[in-house]
Amino acid sequence: EQENAMKVDTHLTQNWRKVPAAVQAAEADGYDGVGTAEMNHDPFFPLLLAAEHSESIEIRTGIAVAFARSPMILANQAHDLNAYSKGRFTLGLGSQIRPHITKRFSMPWGAPAAQMRELIQAMRAIWANWYDGEPLRFEGKYYNHTLMTPAFTPEDTEYGAPKVVLAAVGPIMTEVAGEVADGLIIHPFSNEKYIREVTLPAIDRGLAKSGRSRSDFEISYTPFMVSGKDEATFEAEKVAAKNRISFYGSTPAYKQVLGVHGWGDLQIELNALSKQGQWAEMSNLISDEMLNTMGIMADPSAIVPEMKQRYGDFTDRTSGAFGFVDHDTRTEMIAALRAG
């Protein structure tokens, strides 16, 4: 099977004061892109700093919460970052889950896949108005955009529309990505069997709807990596991975990801423990076999070959800080992944 040359991204520091130095270091190390997550800080602001202090590295939200914002707000922010960075911005979106949208952001929650499809189409309609002068007449179930005047139309349009990629776990949202987005971010809580049996066929269905081929679409996947330059690092990475896997595994939406390996009952057990706050007990339920299925547990020298062998035919980009090795080894790993 064909192994892709993978683009390699890393996460941008959450400390905005350190962004200029961090993005320059990432660029020097050979990374293709830097991403931000919407956790305890805004995902867009730091990318403005990253764009200002870099030359060629791509900048991306990975991810911004789509339903916390209107399509017009997103279209505007994405346009501004793309125009300012001279075409280096990708808008990575995710739906989040209902309690976060309704109780944390105080925003309405619809049928997430249908709403996401419409949100991306609404943004594309806004951009078509700005870049191509198409009349703005978007009328949907969730979003309506029918007013735009010259005073509110951006003038710096030479770099065109930003790319839009979508994070998805389930087949329905994955199909939406194939239909209306430029790429898919596969959740780290995944595995090769699930991706081949559920994710890739869903992408193909979406692409077929939009009359596009797989070459028009970018798949980003970052497996869990458990490794270390010494035993202490290896153990610490293993504990961290088990904690994250057990945390994700407690979410009902992810049951199917475990189910393809016959581990569906584990999800119910993890969910019950999470409601009691038994986080340590949850972590203990994750076996070494599960670790090596949800990700790669290996010596540093085996990580890149293993990534290529398992995921190389479908992964166009991956992300890794590769914090378990020294700086020189890290730059070698980045170069090896990029070489395909």
Secondary structure topology:
Blueprint: E1 7-11, H1 19-29, E2 33-36, H2 45-52, E3 58-61, E4 64-65, H3 71-84, E5 89-94, H4 98-104, H5 112-132, E6 138-139, E7 144-145, E8 163-168, H6 171-180, E9 183-186, H7 192-210, E10 218-221, E11 224-226, H8 231-249, H9 255-259, H10 264-275, H11 279-284, H12 288-294, E12 295-297, H13 300-311, E13 317-319, H14 327-339
Parallel strand pairs: 1-2, 1-13, 2-3, 3-5, 4-5, 5-8, 8-9, 9-10, 11-12
Antiparallel strand pairs: 6-7
Helix pairs in contact: 1-2, 3-5, 5-6, 6-7
Question: What would your notes on this structure say?
Answer:
With 340 residues, this protein is α/β, with parallel strands linked by helices. 48% of the residues lie in helices and 14% in strands. The protein is built from 14 helices and 13 strands. The strands form 3 sheets. Strands 1, 2, 3, 4, 5, 8, 9, 10 and 13 form a 9-stranded parallel sheet that branches. A two-stranded antiparallel sheet has the order 6-7. Helix 1 (19-29) packs across helix 2 (45-52), helix 5 packs parallel to helix 6 and helix 6 crosses helix 7. The longest helix has 21 residues, at 112-132. The model has no long low-confidence stretch (mean pLDDT 97).
Instruction: Find the structural class using helix and strand composition.
Output: alpha/beta
Task: Sketch the major β-sheet.
Answer: 9 strands, parallel
List the uncertain runs. none
Helix content: 40-55%
Residues in β-strands, percent: 5-15%
Alpha-carbon distance between the two ends: 12 Å
Average pLDDT value? 97
**Cα-based radius of gyration, to the nearest Å:** 20 Å
Number of extended strands: 13
General form: globular
The helix-strand sequence is: EHEHEEHEHHEEEHEHEEHHHHHEHEH
Q: Count of DSSP helices?
A: 14
